[in-house]
Design goal:
The chain is built from 12 helices and 8 strands. It is an alpha/beta fold. It has an 8-stranded parallel beta barrel, surrounded by 8 helices. Bound molecules: 3-hydroxy-3-methylglutaryl-coenzyme A and magnesium ion.
C-alpha cells in the first residue's frame, strides 16, 4: 500500500564525498551517480553550488550538472538530482547552466518523466554556532537568504528541499538544541516555499526518545509528516533506531549514503550518513517498499569505498556481498 512506500534520498555523491580531502576525479563522481541512478533510487543529491574555498571537493558540481543534463543515464524510474545552494550566487550558477540547456530537464512546474529532474536544496542550522561555522552568518540572516534562493528556484519551476542541521545535537552546543527552534526554522522555510524539510542529525547524537520528542514538537507546530525527511548520521550507531522511531511517527522520507560515506566539513568528528544498504535492508525487513535494488547498491558501496581507499562502512553491504 502507499503507506508502505518510503522514499530514500541518496546523498552519497554530495554529503558522502564533500569531506574527502583528496580530489576525487570527475569521472568517478559521475560513475557513482550513474550507477546509483540504475538502482531504482528516485532522488540523488549530486553536488553543491557552494563557495569552492569552503568546500573544495564540490568545486566541479557544474560539470556534474552539465553531464546529467547532456548525457542523462537510462534509469528504471524517473530520477531527480538535487543540488545544494547556500545563497543566490550558488543558485545563479546553477540557473545559468539550466538556461544553457533548455528542454533537457524536468521541473516541478513542467514535469517530464523522460528527463532528469532537477531540485535545489538550501541548508539552515538549528543553532547559532553551527550556522556561523557552516554559513558564516546567523540563523535569521540565513533564512532571509534562503527565502530569496527559494523564491528564485520556484520562479525557475524547481522543487526545493530545505535542510535544518544539528537538530538533535550540535558539535559546539552539545545536546542543547531546542526542538521548538527547529520547528520555528522549518516553519519559516516552508512559508518561504520549501517543499520538503530534511531534519539533519549532523552529529549522530540523536537518540530514540529525543527523535520522538522532536517529531512530536514538529507535529504540534502544525508541520505535516509528508513534508519531513529524516537525515541521520550513524556516528553513535543510532541511525536505524531513530529511523524506526520516525517511521512509527509517520515519516516516509529518509536520507542515506551508499557505503555509509560522509561527514560534514564544519562538524568535527562527524562520521558518515547511515548507509543506504542498511536503510534499504531495514525497510525490507519491515515490509516497507523502497524500490531500490539492495544488491546493486551493495556493489556500488563496495566499489566506491575501494575507489576512495576507505573501509566499507555498511554492515549490510558487507554481509550481502559475503565480504
Ligand atoms: P562567505 O565567505 O561569507 O561568502 O561564505 P561571501 O559572500 O563573503 O563570499 C566569499 C567568496 O566566496 C567570494 O569570492 C564569493 O564570490 C564566493 P571571492 O570574491 O573571495 O573570490 N562565493 C561563492 N562561490 C561559489 N558559489 C557560491 C558562493 N558564495 C560565495 N555559492 C557561504 C558564505 C555561504 C558562501 C559559505 O559559508 C559556504 O559556501 N558554505 C557552505 C558550507 C557547506 O557546503 N557545508 C556543507 C553542506 S551542509 C551539510 O553538509 C549538512 C547536511 O548534510 C545536513 C546535515 O547532516 O545536517 C545538508
Ligand atoms: Mg549530512
Amino acid at each position: 500500500s502507499s503507506d508502505n512506500r518510503v522514499k530514500i534520498v541518496e546523498v552519497g555523491p554530495r554529503d558522502g564525498l564533500q569531506n574527502e580531502k583528496k580530489a576525487i576525479p570527475l569521472a568517478t563522481k559521475i560513475e557513482l551517480i550513474e550507477r546509483l541512478a540504475r538502482t531504482g533510487l528516485t532522488t540523488i543529491e549530486a553536488g553543491s553550488f557552494v563557495a569552492p574555498k569552503w568546500v573544495p571537493q564540490m568545486a566541479n558540481s557544474s560539470e556534474i550538472m552539465e553531464h546529467i543534463l547532456q548525457q542523462p543515464v537510462e534509469a528504471p524510474v524517473p530520477v531527480t538530482y538535487s543540488f545544494l545552494a547556500p545563497n543566490t550566487k550558488g543558485l545563479q550558477n546553477a540557473a545559468a547552466l539550466l538556461k544553457q540547456n533548455p528542454g533537457r530537464f524536468s521541473t516541478q512546474l513542467e514535469p517530464d518523466v523522460k528527463k532528469p529532474g532537477i531540485e535545489v536544496a538550501v541548508f539552515a542550522a538549528a543553532t547559532e554556532s553551527f550556522s556561523q561555522k557552516n554559513l558564516n552568518c546567523d540563523i535569521k540572516t540565513s533564512l532571509e537568504r534562503f527565502r530569496a534562493v527559494i523564491q528564485e528556484s520556484k520562479a525557475l519551476g524547481l522543487r526545493v528541499r530545505a535542510y535544518v542541521s544539528v537538530v538533535l545535537g550540535c558539535p559546539f552546543e552539545g545536546f542543547d538544541v531546542d526542538p521548538h527552534k527547529v520547528a520555528e526554522i522549518a516553519t519559516d522555510l516552508l512559508e518561504s516555499g520549501a517543499d520538503e524539510i530534511s531534519l539533519g542529525d549532523t552529529t549522530g547524537m540523536g537518540t530514540a526518545p529525543r527523535t520522538s520528542a522532536l517529531l512530536r514538537c514538529m507535529s504540534a507546530a502544525g508541520i505535516r509528516n509528508e513534508d519531513i525527511a529524516m537525515h541521520f548520521h550513524d556516528t553513535y550507531g543510532q541511525a536505524l533506531v531513530n529511523t524506526a522511531v520516525s517511521l512509527e511517527h509517520g515519516i516516509r522520507i529518509f536520507d542515506s549514503s551508499v557505503g555509509g560515506l560522509g561527514g560534514c566539513p564544519y562538524s568535527p568528528g562527524a562520521t558518515g550518513n547511515v548507509a543506504t544498504e542498511n536503510m534499504v535492508y531495514f525497510m525490507e525487513t519491515l515490509g516497507m517498499e523502497t524500490g531500490v535494488d539492495l544488491d546493486g547498491v551493495a556493489d556500488i558501496g563496495a566499489w566506491i569505498t575501494q575507489e576512495l581507499g576507505k573501509a566499507n562502512d555498511s554492515s549490510v553491504g558487507k554481509a550481502v556481498l559475503g565480504a
